[in-house]
Amino acid sequence: MLSENWLGNRIFHSYADILDHYCDAWNKLIAQPWRIMSIGLRRWTHGF
């Protein structure tokens, strides 16, 4: 999800650049709790 939407196909120029992009992607994800809920409600997640 993170890699498909906010981190895919990127070239990072430094460690700080990686950290900035990952923090931004994480903040976008936690601002959308329904995305996390939709993953947890999928049928295949109940088999573990």
From TrEMBL:
Lineage top rank: taxon: Bacteria
Protein name: Putative transposase
Organism: Methylobacterium gossipiicola
Upper taxonomic lineage: Bacteria, Pseudomonadati, Pseudomonadota, Alphaproteobacteria, Hyphomicrobiales
